[in-house]
Protein: Response regulator transcription factor
Organism: Saccharopolyspora hirsuta
Amino acid sequence: MGDPIRVVVVDDEPMVCAHLRTILGSAEDIEVVDDAQDGAAAVESVVRHRPHVVLMDLRMPGVDGLTGIERICKLPDPPAVVALTTFDADKYVLRALRAGAAGFLVKSTPPGDLIGLVRVAADGHTVLSQEAKKRLLAASGDEQSSRQRAVALVRDLTEREVEVLTCLGQGMSNAQIAERLYLSEATVKSYVSRLLVKLSCSNRLQAGLLAYDAGLVPR
């Protein structure tokens, strides 16, 4: 077994932090290296501990989770930040995803699922259910300014880049995109990396939201 997945838990409720520590600590390949009570403390913890994953509550006194996510995602080589919420989907979650969160989890997620989803996030994948994704994309399409920005960004892409971005908007993996477009997975990975830079997106989910805003993915 290699090095454990390092996790920082951020919540203003000590009992929630203790609960998440207990659950995640039961997995041999996960280590909760710290917990923090607001977004500012979370940034300090990330700089100090260099975790792979941050579980971030959104609604906290002081520096809230949205601000914490924005600050963490601007750090060099940031960890995957997963928003924690008590709701399936709301404007806070959409803003968190736009700020660079790799997905979100409801606090009622079963312990076994939580452990598996932390592993998924650490591996660089989106942590978001299909139903939640549909609801968030629908909310995304309601923002006129986001649509205008997305359309302008897509204009500067090549035809192939637009095809790859459309696939991201449909939630496809690199393997699925490769099969759809008759490319190698290595080539798809290169396209995705280039798209994230061109579009100033922190992760695949942000790019997928942008594809939806630009009208590449039908409702």
In short: The radius of gyration is 17 Å. DSSP finds eleven helices and five strands in the chain. Strands lie at 5-10, 30-36, 53-57, 80-85, 103-106. The mean pLDDT is 86.
